[in-house]
Amino acid sequence: MTDAPERTEGRPLGDIGLVDLLDRLLGSGVVLAGDVVISLAGVDLVQVRLHALITSVRAEMAEQAGWHP
Amino acid sequence: MAERGRYLYAVSRDLDPAALADVPGLAGGRVEVLRHAGLDAVVGEVDLTEYGEEGLRRNLERLDWLEEVARRHDDVVHAVAALGPVAPLRLATICLDDAGVRQRLDEWHAALEQVLDRVQGRREWSVKAFSRSTEPVTASATDQPGSGADYLRRKKEQTLARAAGAEDAARVADGLHMRLSAMSAASRRLPAQDPRLTGHEGTMTLNGAYLVPDEEAEDFLAVVHALQEEHPAAGVDVAGPWPPYSFAMLEQR
After folding, report:
1. For B91, which of A18, A26, A56 is closest by C-beta distance?
2. Is residue A35, in this structure, part of any structural domain at all?
């Protein structure tokens, strides 16, 4: 846990790990707080419940990575 | 022919569309800039059988699909971040057509302007801290075979020591966050990540996001390194700089 910080020399921005990315793209980070909004012709048709989504994603990732809780 | 929709990657302003011409979008598509009311929406075309209501319900459950879309989305956001301030959109924000995108820009206009002002010239750094939850507790010299009462007393001491350890770790994490927040234009504490996903040992006591002006990044890192030395047991990890994902939130209406 005391890894050296990622070196990002020669790149304007560092790479982001998948878990950090999904945390931000699905969870807390992006424009609309709350749920994914799929908007067709200005009408919000779908609100994907993110908690359910993330839970299922996590379960699947754990499985794929060979972690068995 | 399959119905097409407009996928929104990010919003920025004063973009040179030519600078994004070679950035691959989703499904190998092109990335375009749609300018409206002083804002630039970075959009691409997607197939609504894949990205429509039904398609998304199905596909968001597939990790390989989700990862591919998240990576593509992130690539485009990085490319925009290299050109100007960026407000990344949440994954899978889709409108039927350009008119729908313009309507969104109108609707979110003031808030998007605020976000772009906030993140201009600033990037996100991630700092995490971990505490080892499995430290061996007081297997001391007095730890000889004893009575059941001794055993219970030792168990109780161990439980108390563990609780105290967790309290210490939480206090250290609070302190780290305070120090780093003071060095940042804005900061947030995100929920701790699941060790089954990240593979980290122990408990994540801090999952902090810090919005740091580019010219102060070195100072920020110097403080992180000082904190790493001050708190070797806290397992302080730093990563970045990233686009300001955690600071692009509009107020929820």
Report:
1. A26
2. yes
